[in-house]
Known about the structure:
Blueprint: H1 2-7, H2 9-34, H3 39-61, H4 72-98, H5 105-126, H6 128-143, H7 158-165, H8 175-196, H9 199-211, H10 218-230, H11 236-253, H12 258-271, H13 282-290, H14 294-322, H15 338-359, H16 364-382, H17 384-388, H18 392-424, H19 426-438, H20 442-456, H21 462-478, H22 484-497, H23 506-515, H24 519-529, H25 531-542, H26 555-577, H27 586-598, H28 604-630, H29 653-660
Amino acid sequence: xxxxxxxxxxxxxxxxxxxxxxxxxxxxxxxxxxxxxxxxxxxxxxxxxxxxxxxxxxxxxxxxxxxxxxxxxxxxxxxxxxxxxxxxxxxxxxxxxxxxxxxxxxxxxxxxxxxxxxxxxxxxxxxxxxxxxxxxxxxxxxxxxxxxxxxxxxxxxxxxxxxxxxxxxxxxxxxxxxxxxxxxxxxxxxxxxxxxxxxxxxxxxxxxxxxxxxxxxxxxxxxxxxxxxxxxxxxxxxxxxxxxxxxxxxxxxxxxxxxxxxxxxxxxxxxxxxxxxxxxxxxxxxxxxxxxxxxxxxxxxxxxxxxxxxxxxxxxxxxxxxxxxxxxxxxxxxxxxxxxxxxxxxxxxxxxxxxxxxxxxxxxxxxxxxxxxxxxxxxxxxxxxxxxxxxxxxxxxxxxxxxxxxxxxxxxxxxxxxxxxxxxxxxxxxxxxxxxxxxxxxxxxxxxxxxxxxxxxxxxxxxxxxxxxxxxxxxxxxxxxxxxxxxxxxxxxxxxxxxxxxxxxxxxxxxxxxxxxxxxxxxxxxxxxxxxxxxxxxxxxxxxxxxxxxxxxxxxxxxxxxxxxxxxxxxxxxxxxxxxxxxxxxxxxxxxxxxxxxxxxxxxxxxxxxxxxxxxxxxxxxxxxxxxxxxxxxxxxxxxxxxxxxxxxxxxxxxxxxxxxxxxxx
Length: 666
């Protein structure tokens, strides 16, 4: 850093940003392993450091050629305003915690400054959409008393709004920020450390070697990895950053757009929350609430979760076909050597340790802490190059800290929306209206319950989102004859999928800095990829056999709904990809999307006709592919066609470099 100071203000600011990012990463690791003595220091202090890192990083960029240096004045003003707002919060923090503080006019103006800085940081990091959502939420809190119907509330003054949104743990510094600091930061650091110690290129090489024969390649690997890890993680965002730091770059390298790569990771990570055996801790909570045995809940959730992930695999495959992303020719696939297998232990052993700790009842944060420690230790033991260049660990911490700063800004902004929702009670009023409107209609009740789950689950971890919705609306659904376990799974699905549903798609915002893409666009792609996830809960209600252990189970019903779900997945996937036996026009895509829905309509003659039509289309789509595979030649012969114009099928340079590296003795 001293050398940076001698080279000029640009490098000096970059050095300051590096130090701040490393400290932020170390704070995340420390809190995961040892906790924090002060809740205010943990939430507010970490956010302040994240904001400072984001501001100094942008200020350092002002000294690059062609940059607008006059904007440095605004950066300095924002940094000073952030410092004043945080300093004042710490001054009155203890009084705020016990509720014995009366706000002054100075406090209000300082709070406005803090919110203004947060909104500007959000705009810089993610663009205008989230800023507009936050502004609308603040406007609703202030002027909602003039609105009609359920949107009308009793009215709040500017002081009351500011007290909830900024000066409390219900707004900016609420639960999402706490979850990021205590859980997500350590997994961000884990991913960046894996890259720094040399496991990243090796894992990329393994991904190309193992998935080179498939068109989806690393996107398929990302789906499988996120499903396995996500079932043990209680946080969708933690899953996104824990696996996404490795998988998203792999998917982009294969030729998929950045927004699509982020969408695949967000959709796959969300599904882990309803994938047995752990289901992100929801299975244990559900068992306690319902009295249903834990293993029975896992059995009921198994087939729906498998169909969800099958739809992701099919969607990625057809997207690869549409973009003419071909399998890597065998001659270009990297060859694995002894050094690669040894270095893979830097990932496999920490992951195994993480799984062991989670299965023995330890917290995800503690599992992440020991995963980071073991990864660093194994890196020094197994990688001679790291021993020669130990500062690469600091580079990994820096990259992790910079990514963490962006995520902190995003969840702090989401805290504005959550604070307004809690203050105005809009979510609970919405749930009450749902019950009164639906009446005796099961389908309308389910639709309203879906909307309520999506609204109430915005920006919230899976467990609290599930508890709020099921306690408000669950009994009404059960009274209509829906089995208890299915009613609860229905809520879990939409509570989880709210994490990829714009505008407050927290999983998309977690993937955005990794994919370097617009979070709203990532959320749209994630919803498109995971569309079957929005249908499966309705299918469970009308076809209890899918849940295996619910009342009304029969083997005939199970076989019939499995066939129709497979046809639905194929119709949806081909409609969105625009690819069947060949390119599909808009009318055919619309017809397939409609047919995918009709095949699930709970009326036998409609089911039969739609299933016959969908089956005929699926056979017509697959017959040319089967015939082409039969003409490929004997097994072991590489008949991969040449890539199309502009299509790169060779592995990335990092993989080629890793593949050419000679084996090293550990």
